[in-house]
Write a structure and sequence with these properties.
- This protein has 229 residues and is of the alpha+beta class.
- The chain folds into two domains: 74 residues, Beta Barrel (OB fold (Dihydrolipoamide Acetyltransferase, E2P)); 151 residues, de novo design (two linked rop proteins) (Up-down Bundle), CATH 1.20.1440.
- It contains nine helices and five strands, in the order E-E-E-E-E-H-H-H-H-H-H-H-H-H.
- It has a five-stranded mixed beta barrel with strand order 1-2-3-5-4.
- Helix 2 packs antiparallel against helix 9, helix 4 packs parallel to helix 8 and helix 8 packs antiparallel against helix 9.
- The longest helix is centred in the C-terminal third of the chain and has 19 residues.
- About 4% of the residues have low confidence.
Amino acid sequence: MKSKAELIILNHTKFGENSIVLHTLSSEYGRRGFLVKVSPKTAMALFLPLNILQAEVTENPKANLWYARNFVSITPLNGIRGNIHKNTMTLFMSEVLYRVVKDQTNEDGLAYWLKGQILTLDALQADFANFHLLFLLNLCAALGFDPDAAGLAPFVTSCHPERCEGSSSGQNLRSLEALLSLPFTEALLLPLTGADRNAIAESILKYIEYHTESAVNVRSLAVLREIYG
């Protein structure tokens, strides 16, 4: 059966000589990989992390891997693609989702929530350095375990001294409490150092690991660390 679906790109992996597996999130199918034929002429930029595409999907109840083709970008995300800091943030966000959301699961409302997050980041003109922290906290809520300061406290530590000199666990917990309680625009403006952000992100990821009972080894956090200092 063929149908059209709106897919959010999380990642892609090579599959044979002329195909990739496109890992996606959608309201229709949840987290699912699709087999996609590619060639040297294929515009791979179409499959950048968190791109929002419409595609023709061929469903096959007898197979775990379905086919997708005829991709069309329905939201260009010019505000993200023209900014190296936002691009790096989308790498982080997509990797977190790729590692946290299990394949062939469908969390109710998750794709709709993610699309809102992507469009919000795309629209922000400035002061978005804290956005990935709010994304992580909101992801916890979207997955069904609403974070609060008491629940996060056991996971809050100071960052590794070689990476995050000057960041303390007490300071980070106070910052987390502020991020949880402040309105969105004020939380974006919360003054944090690069060391603070790194330590807070690591703490929230540990909290997510605990609740999902899985290791979340997010390699792109190191790239964010380099970009934001």
